[in-house]
Amino acid sequence: METILNVNIRNLIGTNNINKLKNQNKCPAILYSIENKSVPIELDEKEIFKLKFMKNIYLKKIFIILNKKKYLVKIKEIQRHVFKNNILHIDFLFIKQIY
Description:
The protein has one domain: CATH 2.40.240.10. It contains two helices and six strands; from the N terminus they run βαββαβββ. The protein has helices at 15-23, 45-52, and strands at 3-9, 26-34, 37-44, 62-66, 69-80, 87-97.
C-alpha cells in the first residue's frame, strides 16, 4: 500500500506565521531539492495522521501531490513535541517526479 499525501505550498514563513498555521490544524514542512531549491509546504492534520503510526517511516517511499504534480519522496527528519509526541515539522527529501 502506498502512502499519498496532499500538500500545499506554504506562503507564510516565520515563527508568528507558523503558530497561525498550527492553529489552523496544519503542519509546516519542507521539501528539499526540487530543481536545486527547497520548497516550504504545509500538510493538513488528516494527512499527518497517515504518518503518525507508520512503522519504519524513514525507510518508506511516500508520494506527495503538490500543484497537481506527483513526487516520490522520503522523510529526512520529523520534529516532535517532547511531551505530547505531536509532529511539529517534517523534512521531505525529493527523489523524483512521477507526473
